[in-house]
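Recap from last week: sequence in, structure out.
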Amino acid sequence: MRRNKGEKVVKTRASWRKADQVRKIKIVMTFVVVALCISVAAGAVLAWIEIQHPFDTSSSSVPVSSQPSVSSETELPVYDNTFNLVVVNADSPLSEDFVVQLEKYEGVPFEERIVEALERMVEDARNAGCTLKIASGYVSKEDQDAQYHAKIQQLMEQEGYSQVRAEDQAQKTIGRGGYNEHQTGMLVEFAASEEGVPFEQSQAYQWLMKNSVNYGFVLRYPENKTSITGTDYTPSCFRYVGTDNAIKMREYSMCLEEYAQYVRQQAAN
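Predicted structure tokens:
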């Protein structure tokens, strides 16, 4: 009789364990269902907000962290793409029709139409604790040619380059007169303010890479686009293209040559 009574107790405990497991599963499933309902509801609310407020800054294609407040409430000048997207490289010389209107900023000449954006950018960087030191701007065709030929001579005499190889390398780093962005007056070359620090490791470079598009400037010669630009990676050179274009170029990961062609194709379609 005791043995039979013991067996009955064992069976009762097993049933209790099974019922407890079922209860725990039901509790877990309840939590899962509630969580899913909350998630769906939250998604619906966010979707409604997007529909009601599609142009809020939170939905901008530019990261919020890279949109500093500008120093003035006035809008920057807007120019058309016949100016903004002028492309000058080894295969595309500056058109004879392009007339540079020079104005000096911090003692350096630039195309006057970009000076307001450049000044605003430098001031906002300064207010953020970052010094943007300008190294050069507009260079005349004659001065550019002089630099180009001096580079060829230096490569041949000091590096042992052949004439052809020296010319090719000089074009990639200096550029012939009339075949270089400096002749547009729209290219700004910066220098690191920290002594002995390469520009790509400087505070100025980090600030520019995050914020320059908001003022219409882009890195002109990116490291991964040398086969397209025909120019060696130059982290210190930023080119004015207009704010809308600059933001889109960063979004599309395009250099100026690619983006200008993209805009032409879009206009033709």
